[in-house]
Amino acid sequence: MVGVGAERTAEIAASVERFVRDVVIPLEQGAPRSSHGPSDDFVQALRVKAREAGVLTPHILPDGSHLSQRETAKVLIKSGLSPLGPLACNTMAPDEGNMYLLGKVGSPELKERFLKRMVAGEARSAFFMTEPAAEGGAGSDPSMMQTTCVQDGNHWVINGRKAFITGADGAKVGIIMAKSADGACMFLVDLPDPAIRIDRVLDTIDSSMPGGHSVITIDNLRVPADQMLGQSGEGFQYAQVRLSPARLSHCMRWLGACIRANEIATAYACKRQAFGKLLVDHEGVGFMLADNLIDIQQSELMIDWCASVLDSGSLGTAESSMAKVAVSEALMRIADRCVQIMGGTGVSGDTIVEQVFREIRAFRIYDGPTEVHKWSLAKKVKRDFLKANPA
């Protein structure tokens, strides 16, 4: 991936950072939200401001080209400095990953009908892959998918159940994965649709994404055949095109949030007096801040390394798994230390530190738990060894 170069990337990232710090952060305390995320009206109001500032969907250029993954990292980290930043700048999940997928594999017709609205920040989207674990559906193992699609003339009929579908409530575009006789398939659909029912919106530990996370029933949904991505049976192939960069994008955004949380904790430690001196002068606190700097730097390097692999044209499945594990665990340590440094203030809503802690805890599970990625990497270790050392 060619990208726009270091100088132009730095300009875009600086513009995003100014916008988030000067416009978005002052709105954090008064943001209208529920336990299922900020309201759509508020998100649209933020996007009006982002559009005026020239930072709406900054990772996709006016000609439709996409920043390289390394360039995207510079920008998305800055958008993540506030939990509201990705919403305002249209770099949030699942939209950012869905836009990337459609930009890569969507037909011109699908791009015009679905992607254009998403890039403009006018339509939120949802990615319907995960299924209820209690019903034996696909969770971290998509090969267990039970949602089916059957061709009926020039339509496909989809039936099944989905769970933890981020942003489905209020979304206007859906990407649905289902299983045909050929294998996994992927479809683009307009939302809402009476055949797609939201059974409930789950109460979860995180609260940054509009629409929350829903349990869905799909009942005889008829989708025109030309709204399938690619051919029947190619769904897993397209899922990998989306999932590896999306895991890395999560790392980028939440690194930005942890950088901000560390700034808040640092300011607190450098101003708060206890036992005759500033908190930062107590080794127990100062060392935690030092450890945060180390974890932040290591996370930045891991993101940059994985992004360079993706930019080389590789799917980067193993690399994105390593980045997801290393960065999510490092960010959890950072967020936890920030709460600990700030004591009672750290668990209050007076700053974003407690929210960042909750969001990062959820991130360790979303897009694949740490243990699943380690298991996948262990299988690769064995496979590579047997290939190099045949019996």
Automatic annotation (TrEMBL):
Entry keyword annotation includes Flavoprotein: yes
Domain Acyl-CoA dehydrogenase/oxidase C-terminal, first and last residues per copy: 233-380
Keywords associated with the record: FAD, Flavoprotein, Oxidoreductase
A molecular function (GO) term: flavin adenine dinucleotide binding
Cofactor(s), names only, from the UniProt record: FAD
Cellular component aspect of the GO annotation: cytoplasm
SUPFAM superfamilies noted in UniProt: Acyl-CoA dehydrogenase C-terminal domain-like, Acyl-CoA dehydrogenase NM domain-like
Domain (Acyl-CoA oxidase/dehydrogenase middle) ranges: 127-203
Key word Translocase present: no
An annotated GO BP: fatty acid beta-oxidation using acyl-CoA dehydrogenase
Family assignment from sequence similarity: Belongs to the acyl-CoA dehydrogenase family.
Protein name (Swiss-Prot/TrEMBL): Acyl-CoA dehydrogenase family protein
Organism placement in taxonomy: Bacteria, Pseudomonadati, Pseudomonadota, Alphaproteobacteria, Sphingomonadales
